[in-house]
Design a protein that fits this description.
Distance between the termini: 13 Å
Strand order of the largest sheet: 1-2-3-4-5
Structural class: alpha+beta
CATH architecture: Alpha-Beta Complex
Strand content: 15-25%
Number of strands: 5
Number of domains: 1
Helix content: 40-55%
Order of helices and strands: HHEEEEEHH
CATH superfamily: Zinc finger, CHC2-typedomain
């Protein structure tokens, strides 16, 4: 998949990231520039360790080693257990990008 497609998908996702996160992580709350939610990929009982920056899309689960990424596509891959190119296609379809 062409790198520019990843960039287009990430840029489009960043523009509506709060709405996407509200749908995918509905237990989350906005704290400053971050969405703080339970991590749906593990038995997470308390908000605080899983955060997504609402401006950049960078995300991390500080309770899990190596559970972090730099953009909305990598978050999609993580949450839905997809490869990066599959996550980009998933987001492109969701955002109406051909």
């Amino acid at each position: 998949m062409d790198r520019s497609i990843f960039d287009r998908v990430n840029d489009a996702a960043r523009s509506c990231l709060p709405a996407i996160l509200d749908r995918w992580l509905p237990d989350g709350v906005k704290e400053g520039d971050e969405w703080v939610a339970l991590n749906p990929t593990r038995a997470d009982a308390k908000r605080g360790s899983f955060k997504v920056n609402l401006r950049t899309g960078r995300w991390s689960d500080f309770a899990v080693p190596d559970a972090r990424g730099g953009d909305p596509v990598s978050l999609t891959a993580y949450l839905f257990k997809l490869k990066q190119h599959e996550a980009a296609k998933h987001m492109a379809a969701m955002l109406g990008i051909s």
